[in-house]
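Progress against Task 2.4 (sequence-to-structure conversion) is shown through the following example record, which the project officer requested during the mid-term review.
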Amino acid sequence: MSYRPNITNVTKASSNDKEGLYEFIIKLADGTECRAFYNRFPEWKMTNISRLLKTPCPVCRKDFICKCMEAFTADFEGQMLGNEWIDKAIAE
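Structure tokens generated for the chain above:
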């Protein structure tokens, strides 16, 4: 069984509107939280994602820093753009 991240909520943590840089906290259905960095120009693109160390990694089960979430960048970007999570987070 492979891991499938499912976004349930996104909040804007910080932003630099002039440069088009944004930081979002992404909450997943399994309780995992991630921090994602986006660049708005020329279009929305994820530049980095990392798991917040509140719960063990759902992929490798490590309780410390790992890079497992980077393997799911395409899944995260698809949900963030397809479900309009970015627009919802910025509007708040």
